[in-house]
Design brief:
This protein has 315 residues and is α+β, with helices and mostly antiparallel strands. The chain has two domains: 82 residues, Phosphorylase Kinase, domain 1, CATH 3.30.200.20; 223 residues, Transferase(Phosphotransferase), domain 1 (Orthogonal Bundle), CATH 1.10.510. 39% of the residues lie in helices and 17% in strands. The strands form four sheets. Strands 1-2-3-5-4 form a five-stranded antiparallel beta sheet, covered by helices on one side. A two-stranded antiparallel sheet has the order 6-11. A two-stranded antiparallel sheet has the order 7-10. Strand 8 and strand 9 form a beta hairpin. It is globular and about 55 Å long.
Length: 315
């Protein structure tokens, strides 16, 4: 297998590889499993890694989930082989083009995403980190070829109740997860709703100059559909996003219910105008996402907990 570096993470490095026997291009994630010096921390890391692989193996094969092709280990690393996404992540796609495509293209992508979510939820699995970075564009330049990826935070709801621990990316995290309350697959629906809002408007729905202000906006459900960026988006598309971004999870639609929505089922009209995202908007959106990722990693590195429910206040 011929291998070339493709990217790095805090515990891993991603390579682009070619199977010599078949000529097929694949992605190989090499995860450091050496426990030298930090045995307790790294044992937890290994436990999380094995659960990520187990969940991915269970859901691999669905047409809208990135295929897991194999797992190999040596004394220092675990190598996870996946199908290669020629278009990179959806976040890369969003910032490499002058437009987001048409509303119809966004509809096709969201339908794929919600079908993947429904598949997971039927198996009592919650992804817990749906965002543009974790949706991979399989065909370069074709946004609606996206597939769901990265099961590092995925959680099985059975046989035990989920731990009340807030994980995920703050801009996309559901209110009930943020408050460390019981949750189910509708937490993924919220995150997918934030992604849908971004795709249709070119902006993030919940913003704040500090994490505290961001959390307050999320808990209040303080997003607006009145800006000029929404003028070219059809009413049915806006209605779908509103049903995804309901603060009370009991009132939020499930993935299965959303797939029957007129906009996704193709029975409602949609705007055909290209959804444009100007350069300033792209830079602002990317800066916000990168800032959130940086803060999240910083908090992990310092061992700081998420704010308690008392610190956040009631929703």
């Amino acid at each position: 297998m011929a291998i070339t570096p493709s990217g790095t993470g805090s515990h891993s490095q991603v390579f682009r590889a070619v199977e010599r026997a078949t000529g097929r291009e694949v992605a190989v994630k090499a995860v450091n499993t050496d426990t030298g010096g930090w045995p307790d921390r790294d044992r937890r890391h290994l436990s999380f890694l094995r659960e990520e692989i187990s969940v991915h193996q269970e859901v691999s094969g669905h047409p809208f989930v990135v295929d897991l092709l194999g797992v190999f280990e040596d004394p220092e690393a675990c190598y996870i082989v996946e199908e290669l996404a020629h278009g990179g992540s959806l976040l890369d796609h969003m910032h490499s083009r002058a437009s987001m495509g048409t509303e119809g293209e966004v509809r096709l992508l969201l339908r794929r995403l919600l079908e993947a979510c429904g598949f997971l939820h039927h198996r009592r699995i919650v992804h817990r980190d749906i965002k543009p970075e974790n949706i991979l564009v399989m065909d370069d330049g074709v946004m609606h070829s996206g597939k769901l990826a990265d099961f590092g935070f995925a959680l099985r709801l059975d046989p035990c109740p989920p731990p009340m621990i807030a994980v995920g990316t703050p801009e996309y995290i559901a209110p009930e997860v943020l408050l460390q309350q019981p949750f189910d697959g509708r937490a993924d629906v919220w995150s997918a709703g934030v992604t849908a809002f971004c795709l249709l408007s070119g902006a993030l729905p919940f913003r704040g100059l500090t994490l505290d202000k961001l959390y307050t906006a999320v808990l209040d459900g303080a997003c607006s559909f009145t800006g000029s960026e929404w003028r070219e988006v059809s009413a049915p598309a806006q209605d779908l996003v509103r049903r995804m971004l309901v603060v009370d999870p009991a009132q939020r639609w499930t993935a299965g219910e959303l797939l029957e929505h007129p906009w996704l089922s193709g029975t409602a009209g949609m705007a055909v105008t290209t959804l444009r995202l100007d350069r300033r908007g792209r830079v602002r959106l990317k800066a916000l996402v990168l800032a959130v990722v940086f803060v999240q990693r910083l908090r992990r590195g310092l061992g700081r907990p998420w704010p308690s429910q008392q610190e956040l206040g009631s929703p």
